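#struct-pred
JK: can someone run the complex with geranylgeranyl diphosphate? inputs below
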Amino acid sequence: MANFQEWAKSHQQSVEEYLQVWLSDQLNGAPKILKEAMLYSLMAGGKRVRPLLVFAAVEALGGNSHQALPAAAAVECVHTYSLIHDDLPAMDDDDLRRGKPTSHKVFGEALAILAGDALLTLAFEILAKDYSSNPAPVLALALGAGPIGMVGGQVLDLIADGQIADAECDRDKNDQLFLKNIQTRKTGALFLASVRLGYEVACLEMSQIEEYWQNLEIYGNSFGQAFQITDDLLDLHSDEQTAGKKTKKDAGRGKLTYPGLIGIEQSELEAEKHFNRGLKAIEVFGEKASPLKDLLLALRNRKK
Ligand code: GRG
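RT: done, structure tokens with the ligand placed:
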């Protein structure tokens, strides 16, 4: 694990440096306050899980991790935008994110919306510039972030708790299937896109790796499901510690979660099923899959 921590730290640092340089060197003419708002959220202490998945997938395939840096930075831009928008009064209405005031609390709602918009756009600018010979990374990120991916999942989530009305037709009658659909899109799609970005970057320089996508896809999907169930279980624990502080979403019809639907013990078993499935899927990569494996193990041991 010591090696994994060093591996993770060096890749986290390279993503942060890359984004710092982009924002200071490449966005000449962009309003200073906009860049400040973008950087505030980008550098607010995220774990960089999605970028690490990009690097880990490239390495599992024997690719060059330096090539993966723009893709890793791009997916973090999309993730950061989604958190800024999710925290807005119109959505979850949160005052704090990672223990710091949310973007709209610091910069006001209008600039927070626009900083999110700018980060989403920047992600595609980075991909288009750095992988100009091939649109596959752009497509991978667009599918994960867009209407059939994260944004679609967010809409279903807001339908689930009653914030988006008159859309009952999109709600599955079976709560567990509906929850799986929400999570696969809202959280899972960007994790899967991260793995896909790693695969696409590796494809730029290697041939005959198509057969490995199936294994990476199982891993990416399992990672997403395990991540969300773990997040819900940790939320329960932190709710107990904060005497159940309610967000706007919790105050609705009741948040749809695995622990809420099937109980804590069954949720833990469900998460375990996904961990094992993910680990099995990457056996084919042997030693090269160490970072993918360690990321899944770190998620399994996650305490906060
Ligand atoms: C607003 C379009 C739009 C989408 C929002 C991702 C998302 C969709 C909302 C976030 C809500 C939330 C807290 C979901 C739980 C899972 C999750 C994505 C947690 C945050 O991801 P981490 O733990 O965050 O990777 P850090 O802080 O490490 O970057």
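RT: quick notes.
Residues 46-47, 49, 82-83, 85-86, 98, 150-151, 154, 186-187, 228, 231 surround geranylgeranyl diphosphate (CB under 6 Å).
The first helix runs from residue 2 to 26.
JK: thanks, will look after standup
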